[in-house]
Design brief:
By secondary structure, the chain is α/β, with parallel strands linked by helices. About 35% of the residues lie in helices and about 25% in strands. The protein starts with 11 loop residues before the first helix and ends with a strand. Bound molecules: S-adenosylmethionine (SAM).
Length: about 210
């Protein structure tokens, strides 16, 4: 059985504040650690056609890797992170990419307008992961894919103990160390089609889910 432990809830303001502080150093810190998973996710997304949504696009480290034949929309709650992404889009002339400040739990898009979506290292940060999965389901076309990469917590062992220790610092970290994989894999309206542990040390997991009707 999954243990439920106390960890302070991150509301939207806490996320904005945390990522205001992260924005100047993100690309040289967590941005590097998350590189292998991000590269793998974009490689998979480049196999799709049409319109891809990247939720929690952050400073836009993924953006130069999307092939130009795709239409890509990136959203993020943090204006500071998104300002970095916007600078990158302009600097690199990435005309196939659009960016907006938006809450992943309340997407301002029509139903079934995306062919695929990516949520990379975001699910442990958002205040309400179930609302994000429900929104993804709404905006994806039937059969569309959602690629989620995240750190998912363990129930036993050293890693589980470390995660429990970190949980009380959620507010300062800007993410929730305790986050069971079932929060994503058991979401209504999705079928899990792929699961890959990614470096460093299998710390993160890539999940590909397909929208079922
Ligand atoms: C750890 S960063 C990941 C950034 C990027 N996906 C990457 O691979 O580097 C988490 C991002 O999620 C964003 N975020 C957190 N809550 C959000 C929400 N409710 N809606 C949209 N973005 C959110 C944060 O502002 C931050 O940019």
């Amino acid at each position: 059985m999954e243990k439920v432990l106390h960890q302070p809830r991150l509301d939207e303001n806490a996320v904005r504040l945390a990522y205001k502080a992260w924005a100047p150093v993100y690309d040289y810190s967590f941005g590097v650690v998350a590189g292998p998973g991000r590269r793998l996710a974009v490689k998979k997304l480049n196999e799709f056609n049409g319109h891809v949504l990247e939720v929690g696009v952050g400073t836009g480290l993924s953006l130069p890797r999307y092939r130009h034949g795709l239409q890509v929309t990136g959203i993020d709650l943090s204006p500071d992170m998104l300002a970095k992404a916007s600078g990158r889009v302009t600097r690199l002339g990435l005309k196939h990419i659009k960016l907006s400040v938006m809450d992943a739990g309340k997407l301002a898009f029509d139903n079934e307008c995306f062919d695929a979506a990516a949520v990379m290292y975001v699910m442990t940060v958002v205040p309400n992961p179930a609302a994000v999965m429900a929104e993804l389901r709404r905006v994806l076309r039937p059969g569309g894919s959602a690629i989620v990469i995240n750190h998912f917590s363990r129930e036993q062992g050293l890693r589980a103990a470390a995660e429990r220790g970190l949980a009380r610092f959620s507010h300062n970290l800007g993410w929730h160390p305790i986050f069971p994989i079932s929060t994503v894999t058991r979401c209504h309206g999705f079928r899990l089609v792929e699961r890959i542990d990614v470096p460093p040390f299998g710390l993160f997991t890539l999940l590909r889910l397909e929208k079922v009707s």
